[in-house]
Write a structure and sequence with these properties.
The chain is of the alpha+beta class and about 400 residues long. It contains 16 helices and seven strands. The strands form two sheets. It has a four-stranded antiparallel beta sheet with strand order 1-2-3-4. A three-stranded antiparallel beta sheet has the order 5-6-7.
Length: about 400
């Protein structure tokens, strides 16, 4: 057994060595001369070693006391190392917190300022890509390598799903981790944002412009939509997007109050600057936009009103709330269609121009108004009657692909 006199007499060697006390306790002498208390034990036949602390700061009496504590844990089937980690994690949670804890705190702090979609999108990526890797790690211990591993894992998941190469999703995940890190700096948990050095780690993919659908793709779209077994709201949203040339975001955020059945129009209002900052923009460019509705579009919209009488949204999700951001493109993917919703707009533009419709009518219908045009030029009612005629022609043309309204 050891005593203080014997411990002080232990000299360093070229390699570290240990001298036993009893009950698994030993002292480790390192080449530097430092001396550390170590507890050696077996847990389910596996040899393990736990560091108690440095001598003389940790006395012999205290080291023996901790040894007895660890042996009591072993008698109860508890691994001392795992127990120590658990206690340490709980202490961190009570002070700085884990990434998951801080992320939840950050999300709660922004709830009143942001849209439900903002919250749902971040929660989805945190749960799926971030928390499994760093959720339980103390916020101040997370470094750039940890975050790089999360980004690599996210991109690998997207590639495996066959829905792209993952760069866009990877960049978004870095951004939302960065939001939590910035919040941690503001709340004095950390002093440096470890996502900063990863800006530029993922290269933005080259933008590929949507192409018009081929004749066979038009027929395939109609055939698969007519027999689509998913949500009626999703199917109808894709059909109305085809009939109206609206973007996915405009379809998803479309509210019943925007529809005037008497005037046969869908009017998308501009929103306030506060709404834009909260992620509630209705249009890509924040202008009022009037969309003339064909007979076919009106019929489907009336069906949606009847399907979701208590929802403010025309094309509500199953819970009556706004349809999810990826719902429409996911539906196309699940139908094995090799194009996105934006291809519907490209198709409409191409065919309308090829059939001699006024280029300005087409551009206004697509809400493609260049910034150098004056507000007077972009009169929301401009050529409305002409566009009504064009959009009814278009709807009849779409039905010729095989659409069943």
């Amino acid at each position: 057994m050891l005593n203080d006199l014997k411990i002080k007499s232990l000299k360093p060697r070229e390699e570290l060595y240990r001298v036993a006390d009893h009950s698994g306790l030993c002292i480790e002498i390192r080449p530097s001369g430092s001396k550390f208390w170590r507890f050696r034990y077996r847990f389910f036949t596996k040899a393990k070693m736990l560091t108690i602390g440095q001598y003389p700061e940790i006395t012999l009496a205290y080291a023996r006391l901790k040894t007895m504590e660890y042996r009591e844990q072993l008698a109860k089937g508890v691994d001392p190392i795992s127990h120590q980690k658990k206690e340490r994690l709980e202490a961190i949670k009570a002070n700085n917190g884990t990434f998951r804890l801080v992320a939840n705190e950050f999300m709660n702090s922004r709830k009143t300022q942001q849209s439900k979609e903002w919250e749902q999108r971040r929660t989805s990526y945190f749960e799926r890509d971030v928390y499994p890797l760093i959720g339980n790690k103390p916020i101040h211990e997370i470094d750039s390598i940890d975050i790089k591993n999360v980004l690599d894992s996210t991109m690998a998941r997207i590639k495996k799903s066959g829905r792209g190469t993952g760069e866009v999703k990877g960049i978004f995940v870095r951004q939302i981790i960065g939001e939590v890190m910035e919040y941690s700096i503001i709340t004095k948990r950390i002093s440096i944002d470890p996502t900063y050095v990863l800006r530029g780690y993922i290269k933005q993919p080259e933008v590929t412009h949507a192409r018009p659908l081929t004749d066979s793709e038009k027929r395939e779209l109609m055939s698969k939509l007519n027999t689509y077994g998913g949500s009626t709201s999703t199917r109808n949203a894709i059909k109305v997007a085809t009939y109206t040339w609206l973007r996915s975001i405009e379809i998803r955020r479309g509210k019943k109050e925007y529809i005037n059945f008497e005037d046969r129009t869908w009017t998308i209002p501009a929103v306030s600057q506060a709404d834009i900052l909260a992620g509630k923009r209705n249009m890509k460019k924040n202008r009022m936009h009037v969309v003339p509705l064909s007979n076919q579009a009106i019929q489907i919209i009336k069906e949606q009103f009847a399907l979701y009488p208590n929802s403010e949204y025309i094309f509500a999700g199953e819970d009556g709330e706004m349809m999810g951001k990826t719902t429409l493109n996911t539906a196309l993917h699940n139908m094995k269609l090799e194009f996105t919703m934006h291809a519907l707009r490209a198709t409409a533009s191409t065919i309308a121009n090829e059939n001699g419709f006024n280029k300005d009518w087409v551009e206004i219908q697509l809400a493609h108004v260049s910034d150098n045009k004056t507000r007077a030029t972009y009169n929301h009612a401009q050529w409305l009657n002409d566009r009504k005629t064009m959009m009814q022609w278009w709807a009849d043309h779409v039905d010729s692909w095989g659409f069943v309204s």
